[in-house]
Amino acid sequence: MDRESKDKNRIRSLEKGLEILLLLSRHEAELSLEDISQEAGFSKPTCYRLLQTMRRNNFVKQSSETKRYQLGPRNIAIGTAAMDRQSVRAIAVPYMRRIRTQTGETVNLTILDGTEIVFVERIEGKFIVNSNLYVGSRLPVHCSSMGKAILAHLPEHKLAAIVEKLDFQQYTQKTLVSREQLYKELEKIQAEGTSINNEELEKGLFAIAGPIRDYSGEAIAALNVSFPLARHRIQDALTDFVPVIKQVCMEISGLMGFKAT
Asked: What is the architecture of the domain spanning 86-255?
C-alpha cells in the first residue's frame, strides 16, 4: 500500500483523541482544557469536542467541581485485557534474542515461585556448554542472580515472608548463608540496579541479572546473561554486559507499565 493510500485510511480526529488519552496517562493530576490544549497542540474547541465524546464513553472523567479532566474507568478494562494477552515471556523473548546476539551468551528469564525461581524461557548462547537447566528448572532465590534481582525489588512485607522461609543451603564457599548477608547484598543490588552470581551456585559460573518490574515498581521477573568464567574476565563482563542488561530490563519493564522516577 502506497503512502497516499495509507493517508486515506487515517482518521485524524481519532489520532488526536488517542494522543489526548496518552497525554492524560502521563499526568497523575487532573488537567484543565487549557492545559490539554497547550500540551497537545490542538485548539480548545477541538480538544473540548474530543474530551466530551470520550467522557460520554467513560474514557475520560470530568470533575463536576473543577471541570478538569483525567482518565476514565474504561481504560482500566482495556489495559488489563492487554496485559493479560501480553505475558512477560511473550514481551521479553525478542529482547532476549537481542542480548544473545550482542553477547553470544545464554540468556535466561525467570519468575518467582515461593523461595525459588522458575525458568520460563532460555535462549542458548553460541558456545556449547553442558547445562542441566531448561524451561521449568528451579533454583533457590538466595544464590541465583535472578532470584536476588527479584528479591531486591519486592515490597518489604513480601520480601520478609520469603526470607523467613529460606534455609540458606550452601552450594559453594561463596554462597550467602545468612539473612544478614542476603539483606546486605539486596541493598547493593537496589543501589546498582543489577545483580550478580559469582560462583555462589556452581564453581566457575558467573551471571549478571536485572529485574523486570510492573506498574507498581515490583519485580515480576528477572533476566540474566550467564557464562563460565573461563570465557570472560569479571571486570570485562561487568563493563560489557551490565549496560545491556540494564537497558533491556528497563525497556521490558516500561512495556509492563513501569515508569522510572
From this structure: 2-Layer Sandwich (3.30)
